[in-house]
# Entry
Amino acid sequence: MQRKNFLSKDYVFPGVWQKYQDVYVESVAEPEEYFGELAKQALYWKKLWNKYFDYDPPIHRFFVGGLTNYTYLLDLYDKTWRKDKIAFYWEDELGNTRSLSYHELFREVNRFAQVLKNIGVKKGDRVGIYMPMVPEALVAIYAIHRVGALHVIVFSGFGAEGLASRLDDSKSKLLVTADGTLRRGRFLELKRTADSAIEKATSIEKVIVFKRWKGETDMKKDRDFWWHELMDQIPNTTYVEPEWLEANDPVYIMYTSGTAGKPKGIVDTSAKLVWLYANMLWAFDLNYENRKRDTWFFTGDIGWAGGMWFTVYTTVFFGLSSVFYEGAPDYPKPDKFWELVEKYKATVFYTSPTVFRLFMTYGDEWVRKHDLSSLRTIGSVGEPLNAEAWNWAYDVVGNKKIPIIDTYGQTETLLTVLPPYSIDKIPLKPGSATFQVPGVEAAVLDEHGQPARSGEKGLLVYKIPFKAPSIFLTVWGDVEKFGEKNWKGENEFVNSAYYNVFKGFFYTSDAAMKDKDDYIWMLGRADDTLKIAGHRIGTAEIENAFLFHPAVGAAMVVGKSDTLRGEVAVSFIVLKPENNPSAELAEELRKTVRKALGAFSVIDRIYFVKRIPMNRSGKVMRRLGRALVGGMPLGDTSTLDDPTAVEELQTAIKNKGY
Ligand code: ATP
Ligand code: MG
# Structure
């Protein structure tokens, strides 16, 4: 990489790239110094580590021998001015509000930790969380961490099947849930769903139920307990000493989104939390001044990695005030999020591309009627942020004044490509997540494992061993089934999925490209690539081309095998309001795509639908579309957000489309 001045019109926020390269070089040359310093900033260490790094392939360990507990940060804050600061501003879709100061949070976490101890929860036990976005969910998560148990957060929108499989896979013994939650004005009975899940997840011995509503709930004697009754028995002054955890002791299991197939139970440690601290510091410039004044708003649910990291763990790491919203982005009206930003004067708004694209279809006036001038940064994570959505967020939400920070990562490795803004105000290019972060040695390889040329599409990998604590400890099933290793001395699943694909590298399964300035462009999932008459093209590229047409709100493209061309593209299109499906419009859309991508990019069929299938973290589930057009079984659908989306695709296919 060479240092450059970026002043050309390709860049937004033109500036000089000065320090990033030096910091990057230092981080890979001297990872111990660089990340050791960050670890000391991030956490309180009861005992410092005696070894920075230990590699027993494929297991990486960092800060070996160090003792810490993340929740001790609450103890530290309680001795400072921060104790009176609001940690969470909670609001639901009806506009009810509550808030929790750092002192209140500290007290509640200690009380619930005592409840857990009384029930017999011990270090290493797994505890399921099936809770709506209410403050008690946060209290439960921190308290479980405090006593050294592993939280297994399961999205509250999942049905009994999705919940049961995660509780059973993790062999959780306690479940913390609520009687229900409101979603789009409808009451969802979580406890009832939990009851049927527990019939299958037989490891669950006890259930704690938070009463969110006034209605009746069936409670099973000696198994089910009310949250408030247990908490009422614990004095407000109760103190539970944190369980001091070795830096590589597991702290939670978080299941991946299940976009490609069956969700994987990623096991993380305190060392990986240091990485989260570093990620957020880099991307959002969380220096000491910003930490004092920021009001943070990450919009994702705590039931997926993003919500857990960027709300639960980020808030306390930096002592921020966070907006914590229980409800849908566009309910009761399409400006609910903007209302929250304005009301709480949010400074950082961090969301997913799906959310931007949703708001793009509603029209700018819903955004423009709010004063969003408190914002200093907008972030995005979860899917490629296409240039149109980037520019929309920049123009309409940020009023052309603030950076749009696209952050790329996976449950497995957390964030690895992002604009490292606390290091350098590097220039941004709409549509690129910019650079590999310090400590990560990312490369783009072709199918044969050779480095791709700049500008050439390839697959994103990281050199192993990792030098920084970005990598998970293991996948839950592996350790459970095989102990640390199987009979061949290998960690079976972890090896086959991640380490044995390209020798010497960790494989992300994502397509990427590095441009001439070393900016990384994420091009979608590797399995979402089509080969049309010998040309490789990402489905996301075709989708982005559709989005150039003003009538298109959202697009999903999948491949279908074709005897003549190998594969052809089939598309599902959601139109913006006031546009109607017609053969003429379909023809116009085909032209738009051809113009953007060239003559080979033939669109075989266009189906107009009202919604496309997404999972709970807002990712398009192309594999379901692929299965339907190919007449294959659907596979695991437990992470699907709205099951009617699949029925809609089925009907559209039956009606033959255009
Ligand atoms: P599964 O692994 O179960 O199939 P998943 O990969 O969707 O599900 P996550 O770990 O939640 O589960 O998501 C990580 C994936 O999300 C990445 O591999 C990538 O495909 C996509 N992703 C996340 N952030 C970005 C981003 N900023 N740009 C492009 N892609 C992103
Ligand atoms: Mg994945």
User: Anything to note?
Assistant: The longest strand covers residues 552-562. Residues 256-261, 263-264, 304-305, 381-384, 406-411, 433, 508, 510, 522, 525, 617, 619 surround adenosine-5'-triphosphate (ligand 1) (CB under 6 Å). The CA atoms of residues 20 and 424 lie 6 Å apart.
